Amino acid sequence: MANLAVHAVHKRYGAVRALSGVALAVPSGQLSAVLGPSGCGKTTLLRCVAGFERVDAGEIEVGGRLVASAGRQLPPERRRVAVVPQEGALFPHLSVGDNVAYGLGRAARRAGRVHEVLELVGLAGYADRMPHELSGGQQQRVAVARALAPRPPLVLLDEPFSALDAGLRADLRRDVRQALQADGATAVLVTHDQGEALSMADQVAVMRDGVIVQSGTPAAIYGRPTDAWVADFVGEAVLLPATVAAGVARTVLGELALTGATSLDQRDGAATVLIRPEQVAVLADARSGQVAATVTRRDFFGHDALLSLRLDEGEIEVAARVFDRSGHALAPGERVGVTVRGPVLAYREQPAGVG
Ligand SMILES: Nc1ncnc2c1ncn2[C@@H]1O[C@H](COP(=O)(O)OP(=O)(O)OP(=O)(O)O)[C@@H](O)[C@H]1O
After folding, report:
1. Do 256 and 219 reside in the same domain of the chain?
2. 249-292 pLDDT, tens digit each
3. Which of 106, 129, 134, 204 has its CA 20 to 30 A from that of 300?
4. Which of ligand 1's atoms lies nearest the C-alpha of 210?
C-alpha cells in the first residue's frame, strides 16, 4: 500500500500555477525523491502534503487516510507527517535528548525510543548536548532522529543538506538513508540536486513546471530519460541531431545502435540522440575513432574529468568523461579522436539549441 498517494493535485497562487495535476505514490518503507529545478513546485507540493497549504483540486492520502482535497483540509498536527527542514529545526533551549523526545508519549520515552533513534543517526551518547554544541551536520542528524521518533506514517525532507558543505553531505546522505531504511520509514526527499536524488532514493519523480514528468528508479531515470529535457537535467547529456533508420541513428559521431527502449517513440526519421559523457571515448590519435576533435576545456573533479571537445565536423561541442590515471592529462588545444561506446537513445523531438 502506498503511504503517500497524491492524485491530480492542483495549486495556484494568483496567476501562478505552482502545481498542475501532480500524481505521486510512495510505497510503504520507501524513499522517493522529488527532483526538479528551482520554481518547479517542489516546496509547494511538500507544503500541501504537510498541510501548510490547501490544494485547489485533487486529493492527498497519507497512510490510507484522505488528508486533503478541495473540500477537506486536515490540519498539519493531525496528519502526523514529520518535516525535516533545511536548517533550524531544533529548539535551541532543549537538549538533544529533549528535542528528540518532544513529540513522544511517556511510554515511548521509557521504551528507549530516544536512544534508539539517536543511535540510528550515529549520535548515541549525544543526548545531553545542547544544539549549539553540535556541528551543522550533527544538528541535521538530530532533526532526522526527532522526525523518526514518533514513527510517523510519512517523513518529508526539504533539501535537508543544502546548508551543509559538500564534504559533509556525502556521509550524511548515506547515514540518513540507512537510518530511514533501518527504521522502515516512508519518506519523500525534495531536492534540486540530481546526485542527491539518484544516490539516496528508491524512486525518483522528476518535476517540471508543476507536473511530474517522469517517475522511476534512479537507474531508469538516468538510463532511459523520457525526453531530452529530463536527460539534460538528470546528469550531463550530449544531445545530437540524427536520422534514425532501422534501429540505427546516423549522427556526426557515426552510426550508433539504438538501445531499443520500448518506452520511447523511436520511429524512423529526424531525431535527437542522447549520449552520456561516459560513453564518449577519447583517443590520443586524432586519426583514429570516428571524428577528429580539439579539446576546448577540461574540468577536473579528482576522481575523473569532464572534457569539452569541439568536433571538426559540424563544429559541434560534446562532453566526455575520462578517468585518466596515466599522468598525461589532455589539455585544451590538444587534438584527439572521438568515438561512442554502447547504444544510445533517440527522441523524436528537437530540443532548443540542438540542430
Ligand atoms: N506564497 C506564494 N505566493 C505566490 N507565488 C508563490 C508562492 N509560493 C510559491 N510561489 C510560486 O510558485 C512556483 C513554485 O514555487 P515552489 O517554491 O514550490 O518551487 P520550488 O521548486 O520549491 O523552488 P525552489 O527549489 O527554488 O525552492 C514558483 O513560480 C513560485 O514563485
Report:
1. no
2. 999 999 999 987 665 666 778 999 999 999 999 998 888 888 99
3. 204
4. 14
Q: What is the structure's pLDDT at 342? A: 86
Q: Which of 176, 194, 223 is the last residue of a domain?
A: 223
**Whole-Å CA distances, 104 to 6, 32, 81, 90:** 28, 26, 14, 15
Residues of the chain whose pLDDT is less than 50?
Answer: 351-355
* CA dist., res. 158 & res. 194, Å (int): 14
Regarding the beta carbon of 289 and ligand 1, being less than 6 Å apart is answered no
Same domain, 290 and 205: no
CB 349 within 8 Å of CB 264: no
What CATH number is associated with residue 266? 2.40.50.140
Burial class (CB in 10 A: 0-12, 13-18, 19+), 120: buried
What is the H or E stretch that residue 272 is in?
A: strand 269-275
Domain housing 9: 2-223
Whole-angstrom Cα distance, residue 250 to residue 134? 57
- Regarding the beta carbon of 18 and ligand 1, being less than 6 Å apart is answered yes
Same domain, 251 and 213: no
Is 41 near ligand 1, meaning CB less than 6 Å away? yes
Determine which residue's CA is closest to atom 18 belonging to ligand 1: 41
User: For the chain, how many structural domains are there in total?
Assistant: 2
Which residue, among 40, 62, 44, has the nearest Cα to 53 in the 3D structure?
Answer: 44
311 in the same domain as 246: yes
Percent of the chain with pLDDT over 70: 94
